[in-house]
Amino acid sequence: MEKVLEVIDLHVSFKTYGGEVKAVRGVTFDLYKGETLAIVGESGCGKSVTSQSIMRLIPNPPGRITNGSILFKGKDLTKLKETQMRSIRGADISMIFQDPMTALNPTITIGEQLVEGILQHKSISRQEAKKVAFEMLDLVGIPNPHERFKHHPHQFSGGMRQRIVIAMALVCKPEVLIADEPTTALDVTIQAQILDLFKDIQKKTGVSIILITHDLGVVAQVADRIAVMYAGKIVEAGSRREIFYQPQHPYTKGLLNSVPRLDLEGAELVPIAGTPPDLFSPPAGCPFTARCSYAMEVCDRAYPFKTHLSQDHHVDCWLQDERAMNRLTSVK
Ligand code: SF4
């Protein structure tokens, strides 16, 4: 499969009065053409910082990409000037945020906002841009697009507003769409409609999607592959089937045990006890040690090696590493 984006050993930190927060600590993943990669984890695990780094939207200061590269079309996005990034943002890589109201200008009609977005990146006439805008509104399922074009954001429901935000993100036909908690602010029925819309759009346009979410129900519906993040690292990644049916990292298992399952009658929800580590001074060993019921002595001392279980499935956990026993003796 064709790779459209490569994130290699990405590190992102934030300088604060209390010290440096190491929010992303060596994240590596690929995104392939036409797939949906879900990045999941608790709040503060670094998933949104990772996606904002791809868009170079981390405010500097206090944030900074301290190491790593983000390769897109042969260019390292971490090295581009802001002016070069502006031509990529919105045109080649687009982003959808959680709350559609913050992404839309309440004082301008949605049609005008769409047309402005198109004209920023494409040298076409206003009339042609309007035609593209109508097509996009139609694509995302806004009924009567010619009429709705003249309406302001407050004249739409929450679900319709999110459809408009999706139309705005797709208007320049990007290769990568990053959706950061796109359904969290919506009720469950509208959420299902928006997820169907993502699948439909992907089929029609071939866009690659990075879905950032804490909701495993959402992931189960749309993801092809899943990366599980914890304390700034991807601790397990694999196909949807591998993560849901053969999870290997105790944190992934904990996440799955803490969501309601309709297929398991009478199954109890088991929360993950404890809290994530302080990222001002992250532990040298496995960051899940304090919460892990399988933790061994080595876990606290050294970060586990990556174990590859299949082409897509890998996990960072000493339980999977046959060298764990040697490591026990060799680590001082
Ligand atoms: Fe638990 Fe150790 Fe595996 Fe970390 S490395 S998840 S502490 S067993």
TrEMBL record:
Its main location: membrane. The keyword Transport applies. It comes from the Bacteria. Residues 5-256 form the ABC transporter domain. It is a peripheral membrane protein. Signal peptide: none annotated. SUPFAM superfamilies: P-loop containing nucleoside triphosphate hydrolases. This is ABC transporter ATP-binding protein.
